[in-house]
Amino acid sequence: MRKRTDPSLLLDEQLCFALYAASRRMTAAYRPLLDALGLTYPQYLVMLVLWERDALTVRELGERLQLDSGTLTPLLKRLEQAGLVGRRRRQSDEREVEITLTQAGDNLRERAAEVPRCMADRLCMSVDAFRHLRDELKTLASQLASPQDPRE
Amino acid sequence: MRKRTDPSLLLDEQLCFALYAASRRMTAAYRPLLDALGLTYPQYLVMLVLWERDALTVRELGERLQLDSGTLTPLLKRLEQAGLVGRRRRQSDEREVEITLTQAGDNLRERAAEVPRCMADRLCMSVDAFRHLRDELKTLASQLASPQDPRE
DNA sequence: AAAATTTATATTGTGCACAATTAAATTTGA
DNA sequence: TCAAATTTAATTGTGCACAATATAAATTTT
């Protein structure tokens, strides 16, 4: 029984730690770029979704980003305070809160356009390698969706 | 100027989001397994490091996991409360706090041995695919280390 | 050796994540 | 039709992450 050398519990062998460490480094790499826009990384993701399609509900944003209202509600209130989005109940269904870009929120897209360019420079990856890794991660994420969870 | 269809700002094109989403799903997949051990995911990582090599300082744990004292100090206090580790200043250098496994912390390793097995079943990946993705993520993380940062 | 600097940890404050609960609006179905 | 079930957000509470600062111990400089 050589417990100490059981490789399955070694940190450097873990896929989960490589993923966790890479994800935090990625967020850290975005930080200076997003600071310049006055956004945090999760706020940037919300803005990406809204730039793609405006006037989504909290639920729709949550489905897209896989985040619940416990995370989104305070985040969206901060974006509202920053003047980037508006929040109002839909008259068609008062349970739903519709999030819309303000003019400032819409304008920010142009300044944000440089963010992916800066990151591409930073990564020094071929377009193929980039896509391949991204798609491997998407596959991994769907593999990890809990069976009884209808998220996908 | 077709702003709306600029692909560089589409959420589904982003490597960063694929990474962020996969990392959160991975943590979520560990949660039920770690709940059974009374650990959170970051606490599990700390235990992995200590099972590999006991009696590390907070700084050494932080270097291994890339976490600072603001994260580790309260986490380690919770592990201490749970009876899994001890914390004491080193007599050789009173600035350093040495973290050691208690008997309970050491014993937990045997129960933790099933965690990687369960996750391997869940992932349904070949050993080669697993290693390849893990090593790609390690390469990505080093690529993202800030130039002036001596972390690697 | 005293002063300045460096190092190690802790503390404070902000912002996620996520589980659990609550409250209100809507839908369903007996 | 109206009570029960469902849906949508918000709230509460815990535990990370991480920046900034504080504090104390050790080391280096003068």
Characterization of this structure:
- 2 copies of one chain form a homodimer.
- The first copy, chain A, is mostly helical.
- Chain A is built from 7 helices and 3 strands; from the N terminus they run ααβααββααα.
- Chain A has helices at residues 15-35, 41-52, 58-65, 69-81, 103-112, 114-123, 127-144; strands spanning 56-57, 85-89, 97-101.
- In chain A, strands 1-3-2 form a 3-stranded antiparallel β-sheet.
- In chain A, β2 and β3 form a beta hairpin.
- The longest helix of chain A is centred in the N-terminal third of the chain and has 21 residues, at 15-35.
- The termini of chain A are far apart.
- Chains A and B meet through α1, α2, α5, α6 and α7 of A and α1, α2, α5, α6 and α7 of B.
- The first copy, chain A, binds a DNA duplex (30 and 30 nucleotides) through α1, α2 and α4.
What descriptive keywords fit this protein?
homodimer; three-stranded antiparallel sheet; 8% strand; DNA-binding; 152 residues; 7 helices; mainly alpha; globular
